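Hey, resending since the last one bounced:
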Amino acid sequence: MRNVVLARVDDRLIHGEVVTAWTPTMRGNRIMIVDDDVVRDTFNVRVVKALAPAGTKVIVYSVEKAAEKLMVPGVEGERIIILAKTPTTFSRLVKAGVPLKEVNLGGAGIRGERQPFINNVALSPEEVLACEEMQKAGVHVYYQLVPEQGVIEIDDALKKAKANFGL
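The structure tokens again:
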């Protein structure tokens, strides 16, 4: 598998926190955006590529293509940051056989069925179940807004969200 240094849920994809905090801290030199909708929108692809930190290559894939690309041997020195808008995307990667060790929940705003989950993360019932599925598969799912902030475990938030949604 390729060298993934961070797998992060953030519905804003590339923005200030990713550019100024996560990429330098993780020494990322590639950002892989995994999103079935973004990959089909050539304008959006150009926008996210333009937002990347200098010297950082951005690639945008569908979930299926990302799973395929992540399973090949990595290139020496490659440090990939994977960004996706929802935990469901990461759950799909795990189900496709990508051996992710952990998934960081970053920003996910309230919209549609999403309800507050933990700090600045709101999740839908489907996304709550995706987090639970990943944890059952051995993936450490946690909340951490920026690298300087401590990791917050989501177990209690997961139980509360499941009860609130009647899952």
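The CA atoms of residues 117 and 123 lie 6 Å apart.

Sorry for the duplicate.
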